Amino acid sequence: MSGATPVEAWFGDGFARLHPSLQSLHREGGRLEGRVSFRVGRGLAGTIGRRVLRRLGIDPASPEQRLVVDIRHVDGVLRWARRFGDGQEAVSWFRPVGRWPDGHWEERAGPLKLRLMVDTDGGGWRWRQIGCRLWRLPLPAWLAPAVDAGKRIEDGHYRFDVAIRLPLLGEILAWGGHLRMAC
């Protein structure tokens, strides 16, 4: 696919399985805005979840925040820059490996690198984690954080959800909401 974005090239013919609004977003890039709701776990998991929120500049006592996501294609990778409320920008870089449906993406955010396969259903996209590295060291499943995330178009809005779990502790943090394309 000459001139294709990383997402178009990775999906190939499977790109048509995505909702037209997701196709447009991943063809042209864009900016999403809206309010998201947060949920933290209980006990030690909740303590860790609140610490993560503070690190993102989010007051854990506030269950909702404004979210702005800037999505761009840069040198063959996908760049997602997220800003919750007035907090700092959190950037993830997604590098495609192979091709859909057997290939995967590598998400890098700071010292953490996740290997993620993609499942499509009803025009949406769900990440399925297949590996995790911290500072280049592979983490075994019994030690690694597990991320469950997906996106779809619902009632004309971009609907997403993310949950992070730690072995033995359970869910530490989850967030999600409906976003709209910003001008």
TrEMBL record:
Domain of life: Bacteria
InterPro entries: DUF4166
Domain DUF4166 per the UniProt entry, residue ranges: 18-179
One Pfam family per UniProt: DUF4166
Protein name per Swiss-Prot or TrEMBL: DUF4166 domain-containing protein
Protein source organism: Lysobacter brunescens
